[in-house]
Amino acid sequence: MMPNPWLPTWVVVVFAAVFVVIMLLHVQHVVEMGSPRRWWHGGHVLMAAAMLVMLVPIGGLPAVGPLGSSVCAAAAAGLGGSRLVLHRPAPRSLLWPLLVVDLLAMAYMFAMEAVGTAWLTLPLVAWFVLQAWGWFGGGLFPMVAALGAADPPAARGASNTPVGQVPAVVRALPGTGDLALRISLATMATGMAYMLLAMQFGMSMGA
Questions:
Q1: In the predicted model, is pLDDT for residue 87 greater than 60?
Q2: How many domains does the chain have?
Q3: Domain assignment of residue 4, yes or no
C-alpha cells in the first residue's frame, strides 16, 4: 500500500485507538441490548472493525479490499432485507436505512483503489458530515431509544403502549441516553468522512 500523506503514522495511531474504543462501546451494547438494538449496534461494530482493517491493513488494502467490500455489502443487504421483512410495507425507523447506506459506503471505501471517484466520494463525505452533526447535536439520538418501539409486537413482547410512543421500559434501558454513545456515533461518522477524503485524494498524492 502506497504512503498516504493524509494518514501519517500519528493520525493512524489516534484513529485506530478511537475506533477500538468505539467498537468496544458498541460491543457492550450488543451484549446488553435486546433485538433490534442488538443488530443495529452490531452493524456499528462491523463498521468500526472495518475502519480498523483499513487503517492497519493486513497485507495491504488490495488484499483485504474485495473481502471487506463483500462483507459490508452483504451486511447491508442482510440488515436491509431483514428490516423490510419485519416491517411491512416499510421500515418505521430511519436508523435502518441510514445504517444500510453507511455499510454500503464502507463497501465502497474498500473498493476505492479500483473504482473510487470524486463524484461519489464527495456526496458520501457530505452524508457523514451531516450524520456527525445530527449525532453531536442530538437530533438523531432519540431514534435510538425508539428502535424497540418501532418493532412489531411479536418482536418486542406484548405492550399496552400506544403506537408511536416510546415505552417507559425502552427509555430506561442502559445506554439510550448515553452521552458516550452519542459521541461515539458522531466520531465514527467524522472519521469515515475523513477516511473517504484521505482515500480519494491522499492515495493519488502518495502514488
A1: no
A2: 1
A3: no
Contact 5, 204 (CB under 8 A): no
Burial class of residue 188 (count of CB atoms within 10 Å of its CB; 0-12, 13-18, 19+): buried
Residue type, position 178, single letter: D
Confirm if 99 and 38 have CB atoms less than 8 A apart: no
Query: Which spans in the chain are helix H?
Result: 9-32, 37-55, 61-86, 95-110, 112-115, 118-137, 142-145, 147-150, 153-156, 168-171, 179-197, 203-206
- The 10s digit of each residue's pLDDT in 125-155 is 999 999 999 999 888 888 876 775 544 443 4
Residue 178: domain span: 9-206
CA quadruple 16, 17, 18, 19: dihedral sign: positive
| Domain assignment present for 3 | no
190 residue type, one letter: T
| 177 backbone dihedrals φ, ψ, rounded to 5° | -120, 25
Q: Read off the pLDDT band of 122 (50, 70, 90).
A: very high
Query: Quick one: cell of 131?
Result: 450524520
Query: Can you tell me the distance from the alpha carbon of 82 to that of 143, in angstroms, rounded to the nearest whole number?
Result: 19
**Which of 9-23, 31-45, 80-94, 156-170 shows the lowest mean pLDDT across its residues?**
156-170
